[in-house]
Amino acid sequence: MANTRSGKDTSKPTGVDKNTIARKTHEKDEMAAQKWKIEDKRKQRQQELESLRKDLLMAESQLKGSQLTEDERDELQEKRNNFQKVIQSTE
């Protein structure tokens, strides 16, 4: 027990110390929550990007098929272009 001349025990945190510790703990919790949000958003964007790439590959493989009418081919070409634009804007 670390007593001072006044007889107070200085080994225990004071009210100010407790408030400081609580504030710092709260700030750390907030930063951790923000970090998790950012990480979740990054994972979600990555999944969306992978899905778009799969859709792009599917559209490209259908375009290579010779069984398409001109309207279907134009529609697939437009889809393919849109997928490429979205992928480029997300990266």
Automatic annotation (TrEMBL):
Superkingdom field:
Eukaryota
Ranges of compositional bias, category Basic and acidic residues: 1-11, 24-42
- Which segments carry the region annotation Disordered? 1-42, 63-91
Please report the name of this protein according to its UniProt entry: Uncharacterized protein
This protein's species is: Aspergillus luchuensis (strain CBS 106.47)
Q: What is the lineage of its organism?
A: Eukaryota, Fungi, Dikarya, Ascomycota, Pezizomycotina
